[in-house]
Amino acid sequence: MKGALIPVLLLVAWEAGSRAGVLPMDSFSRPSDIAVAFARGIGDGTILLATWQTFEAALSGFACAAIAGILCGAILGLSPRIERVVGPSIDALRPIPSVALIPLALLLFGFGLTMEASVVAFACFWPIVLMTTAAVRGIEPRLPDVARSLELSFISQMKKIILPAALGRITVGLRLALAISLVVAVTVEIVLNPRGLGYSMIGAQQALRSDIMYAELLWLGVVGWLLNYVLRKIL
To answer: pTM score > 0.90 for this model?
Structure first.
């Protein structure tokens, strides 16, 4: 409850400033009008549809990055020789902004879910692979020897010994990547892709419907917080 104090005070000041004429109505819609626009968007399903489209792309890209990042990170963490070979390529590719790949993704996949998810996956891959590599490298050195002495397959080693021992630090990378996935998904929608909350907010802004734009922006913040909260509870 204490954490809600500052947001509530900001909303009250926002409403008072709008009604007093201090805040321009063409840029700052009243919170009461935003609440009405939000209720209307929930009622007719437009906000829920846009939310689903954004989260579909964000979670699809995140899932692909998690699988690839954990697998690659585990291999690099267990084999310093492979890391010395692959490391320079990772250092060269990692600084590339994910949004810079939008033209390439559009050329390969066209508009839609696959294009957006591919850009999200590229952005999410790096924190996961780096954290997994460091986590696996930092586990008890005798654990891989135990796995080899038991003659476990690589998959069994990962499932039964390596990943459970490194899970604590891997989850940090997953949480970072999940936050990145939502940011990148909305960015792609704002820049180019005609779907989701990002595209809807741009449409509302161009139509001078600041109440709808703010309603979707605040809603995006709430669902992003909820997503992070759920992940913290799960992991």
So the answer is: no
